[in-house]
Amino acid sequence: MLCEECNVRPAEVTITTVIGGEKTVRHLCRDCMKKYQNGDISSLMAAILSSMTPRKTENAETDAVCPNCGMHISQFRKSGVLGCAECYQAFKEELRPLFTRIQGRTQHAGRRPPASPEEQERIRKMEELRKKLEDAVQAEEYEMAARFRDELKELQQSKVQEAEPGSAAIKDVQKEEGKDA
Predict the structure, then answer these.
(1) Average of per-residue pLDDT across 73-101
(2) Residue 33 belongs to a domain
(3) Cα 75 from chain centroid?
(4) Residue 70 lies in a domain
(5) pLDDT higher than threshold 90 for residue 49
(6) Which pLDDT belongs to residue 58?
(7) What average pLDDT score do residues 151-177 get?
(8) Do residue 170 and residue 128 come from a single domain?
(9) Residue 1's CATH number
């Protein structure tokens, strides 16, 4: 059997991946395997991804072209790299099952982008007030603690008033306060 990467030398290495219950087997020669071990892992991932992506007909494959950069879906399958941000939309149907297999979902579940400078300052003030409130309660200075508590509520209310009822911003504020939305 020939190497599936170069199609020149005999395959001596077998790579088996099982993702989501779907088994994929690749047969490579020693030279191609060394290429991947020496840092060219993106090519290996592209090869594995292309073997996992369901292929339609050749005509359907050539029809999928990004209107922005002109990249074909077949180029993505070979390289594993998209040409531009618009490619995600142009190849949505081909990418969705791929993302589901690799990441387990198609919706982003990572961290949110950093807040605006004004929001960062508000959050910093809230943290400072929480600390002062805690210190005042421990020192049994309840009048000071009540003032800090009121200031903290004002800052929290200013965030709630900026958001519409039921929006994600209110849920974020409620989470900051320790309440579950």
Answers:
(1) 84
(2) yes
(3) 23
(4) yes
(5) no
(6) 46
(7) 63
(8) yes
(9) 3.30.60
Q: How far apart are CA 138 and CA 57, in angstroms?
A: 72
48 & 61 share domain: no
Provide the β-strand partners of residue 14.
27
Q: Is the pLDDT of residue 98 over 60?
A: yes
Given a contact cutoff of 8 angstroms between Cβ atoms, the answer to whether 156 and 126 are in contact is: yes
Amino acid 26: pLDDT: 82
Q: Is 171 part of any domain? A: yes
Q: In this structure, are 48 and 65 located in the same domain?
A: no
Q: What is the DSSP letter of 5?
A: T
Task: Record the tokens describing residue 104, joined without a space.
Answer: 């387990």
Domain extent at residue 8 = 1-52
CA separation for the pair 145, 142 (Å, rounded) = 5
Are 145 and 137 in contact by the 8 Å Cβ rule? The answer is: yes
Return the DSSP state at 159. Answer: H
The average pLDDT across 51-59 equals 50
C-alpha angle 60-56-103 in degrees, rounded to nearest 5: 115
Distances (CA, A) of 24 to 18, 39, 56, 58, 181: 6, 22, 18, 21, 42
Let me know if residue 82 belongs to a domain: yes
Range ranked top by mean pLDDT from 30-39, 93-102, 117-126, 154-163: 117-126
